[in-house]
Amino acid sequence: MTEYLGSRAYEILARGNLFPTTVRERVVAVGATAVEVAPTNPRRVSMTVVNQGANPVYLSFDTSLVPTSGVWLSANGGSLVMTVAEDLEATTWLLYAACPAATVNVYVMEIVAL
What we know:
The protein has a single domain, classed as Sandwich (Jelly Rolls). The chain contains two helices and eight strands; from the N terminus they run αββββββαββ. It is mainly beta. The strands form two sheets. It has a four-stranded antiparallel beta sheet. It has a four-stranded antiparallel beta sheet with strand order 2-7-4-5, with no helix packed on it. It has helices at about 10-15, 85; strands at about 20-30, 35-40, 45-50, 55-60, 70-75, 80-85, 95-100, 105-114. About 10% of the residues lie in helices and about 40% in strands.
């Protein structure tokens, strides 16, 4: 059987979570200019983003929407959780963040299919 190397979204929904995964974690410094917090990854099945700073952070798939609009993460623990089962292909897309008030740390955890 040939290994499927594309997006796992269809496989997850069709077969369930019957495949090996790994965790990728990092902390990203986010300031007033849009910065990539999660690269495009067609093998990502889940992603959690947590604002560790004292100021709100904006998230978007489009750099033109941050730093003043997009998904708003409140200060001190505001979070976004995406899964392929609930959010489909958007879970695999490139995600940007910006914080117009100050530089803050954002924790990112990805679950990636092997």
